[in-house]
Amino acid sequence: MASTKRRITPKCEGSYRFDPDLFFEQWNDKSSPQHSGDFRNSIIRSFGLKPDDSYQYHAEIAVVTLKDAQQVVDFGEVGGLHSWYLDEKEKELPHPSPDDSKAYASLFLPTNNLVRALTGFRSNAKKGSLREQIAQHLANNLVVPIAPLAVPSKPKSAPKNPYLDLWAWSCENLEWAGPIPTNTKTEHAHHILPVLYHHFGCAVPTHAALSLIAQVAQVRTKPKPIIEVGSGTGYWTFMLRKTFPELTVLPIDNLQSKYRVRWIGDTLVQDGPTHIVTHKGGEGQVLLLVYPIVSEDFTGKMLRAFKGDAVCVAATQNGNGHSAFKGETVADWVKRERPDWEEAARVPLPSFAGKDEALFVFRKRAAVEEVA
What we know:
It is a single chain. By secondary structure, the chain is of the alpha/beta class. It has a domain at 202-371: Vaccinia Virus protein VP39 (Rossmann fold), CATH 3.40.50.150. It has helices at 20-26, 33-36, 39-47, 66-75, 98-106, 114-123, 130-141, 162-173, 193-199, 207-217, 235-243, 272-278, 298-305, 330-337, 365-371, and strands at residues 11-12, 57-58, 63-64, 226-229, 249-253, 261-262, 268-269, 286-290, 310-316, 341-348, 357-364. The strands form 3 sheets. A 7-stranded mixed beta sheet has the order 7-5-4-8-9-11-10, sandwiched between helices. Helix 6 (114-123) packs antiparallel against helix 7, helix 10 (207-217) packs across helix 11 and helix 12 (272-278) runs parallel beside helix 13 (298-305). The longest helix has 12 residues, at 130-141. The protein is globular and about 55 Å long.
């Protein structure tokens, strides 16, 4: 596909007033389902939809309407809808407590240093508890950033993050307090996910994740442009620009996937691998992939073609095949296929119920040694 610089107006299909900046300006604590009554009404009010909205949200896991999603929320745990945790013998474990769900969600607040918060989350877990399993799993998968990268401390200010707020509500509502190793066996997902995917994307950005991406782009004196290939709704690009306006972030997407919401209006419409090949392999740029698809070896093609020295990938970290690669993590693939790169950081992302996501940061070994 040839490069197409056509403008795609930010939009929410069926909305009478959607404007991304105004959305953020008006978003507050009362916008969340925690305060606005229910999930359906929260989405309708926040995005300016009609009360009888009947849009069909298509995703791999289901096709639902807002009414459908709310009905399933109202069902609660009936029929195993909240059965996220199994032991090694695939016997269901007790649900986490509301306090544990809140503690897990708080890990990702911009006011917390993620590494220190993880330590506290683990130290406050009772021996043998589900929370201890979760904390141990998160600790085992953490790759503390290699200098000069660092997990940020409390920022002076951070933009609002409506997706993080909605995700935090989902943790308590769906009785979820973080992933454990046996989540590779979790085969179901909740019906709110197609709605959230269409409005925001398949992964939730955090201040820690955005900061690491920004740091990678600013390792040297002159910041490098960030290219987000497969940008989808554009929410990650939008958040990067809001949080770090000094950076150049270029969203690229072939628009083959339909989303109800588009947060940005300057997406470069092009096939990702084609863009990389026709732009000197991405030399002098940072590659960002957010929940890349598994099919057609998309992720493999991107990582083989990319000639830059830094890649950031938001993807599953338990090899369940939901993103990047089937049967292995992106870290496994890079270790085998790109030995000239090293994993410079891995931090957990807010994982939806039954899932296990992280941000992986890879840098060429020569580049790391040069900076060091």
